[in-house]
Amino acid sequence: MKKLRWLLIGLVILLAVLLVNTLRFSSKQLANVPPAPAVSVGDSAIHRLVKALKLRTVSYTDYSLTDTTQFEKFLSLLQQSFPRIHRQLKRETFNRYGLLYEWKGRNPALKPILLTGHYDVVPVIQGTQQLWKRPPFAGLVEDGFLYGRGTLDDKSSVLAQLEAVEWLLSTGFRPERTVMLAYGQDEEVTGFRGAQTIAAALERRNVQLEYILDEGGVLKTDGIPGLNKPVALIGIGEKGYASIELSNVSKGGHSSMPPKQTAIGLVAEAVSKLEKNPFPARLDAGLDQMFTYIGPEMPWGQRIVFANQWLFAPLITRIMSQSHSGNATLRTTTAPTIFQAGVKDNVLPIDATATINFRILPGETVESVAERVKEVIDNESVQVKVLQKFVSQPSPVSDPNSLGFERIHQTVKGVFPETIVTPYLTLGSTDSRFYARVCPQIFRFSPTPMNDEDTQRVHGTNERIRIRDYQNMIRFYATLIRNSQP
Fold first, then answer.
1. Is 62 a catalytic residue?
2. Alpha-carbon span 250 to 268, nearest angstrom
3. Is 365 helix (H, G, I), strand (E, B) or coil?
């Protein structure tokens, strides 16, 4: 009976702790935010975006394939489309096509803000053009949608920011805090010619920024599991990137007399070990912040879980691991992408090579990933080499309590009042990773409403944006600039 009594007492205490934590788990959403003012740009803003979409500013890993005349035409288009900006703002170019604008504020003691994006786009895969409802570089409208490569990634953000500044200039607005605009020409390949060069220049000039806003998160219109409301996913960090090559060199020979394990077998075994031993799941690389924001908006049962992560972390991990996107948010991911070996079916290969791509969770490094790969493989006959062509460390995690996040939060609520705002870990790479040395507070969010189907259009077929959504993007950036003033 004593054991039962103590068990019941322990259960009551546990329930009390869970209940108290849940009751104290209050909403982080801003309330009573006034509606954002209207921005009057009319149909002319759509016409300017159409002209930009018609320019094939496609970036290629092999720079010799790039049609630089299209980039020249894009810069000319911006000068024609935004005359006030080009009269009143300082403009610099980097490697000919990278752009930096500075709108001087009246108070030099205030740190500037930087809005950034990129205007290069990915190619349309050969043979898929006929799958598009409207040609990808025609800039055609149908049923309220504007179709074209760059409508989501990322010409719409670049043009919307410029439209916002041009409109504010037309009203006579002058900021107290300096506003900077930076646009890269090669984000889709490396970002080295554009954003990296611009960021290095700002660092040399000892420019310190209040916050940076780049692309990365979106306004998810169909919500997330357990929350059937639009959710603004504001990236407070992004994963790193590294590809590691596994290889083995053997003697080769005739396939009629194979050794116990060939080069292919050795490398394949190493790949299998990595897949069977994923990196450990963690909730402390941005997910904990996300749960703090979305948890209080959940139904009661789920709210208890998120309010008591100390107890339910294993359950959260197990549930999230069941989806590809959830699993990728939890851990450094392991993705075998290339395997090369053999030339003939009756000849043993002399060498075999596999390439594994890793997207690295904040808190880990490229070096720690390479060390763990060696430990898991545990076979000295398999060589492990980090490919240096493109390597990116995970970003620092920005603070949701900072002024930048608060102003973005406020602006989202003013333009999209029914939306739940939350921090989020960006899974892909953006140009913003280059700016970490000039600003610790970097956020990744495009005010573009998208559902699950729309997210598949990014880099895919039938990329498009709704006309009214683009007009709201302009309103968002104009409001954010005003909200960021003291």
1. no
2. 14
3. coil
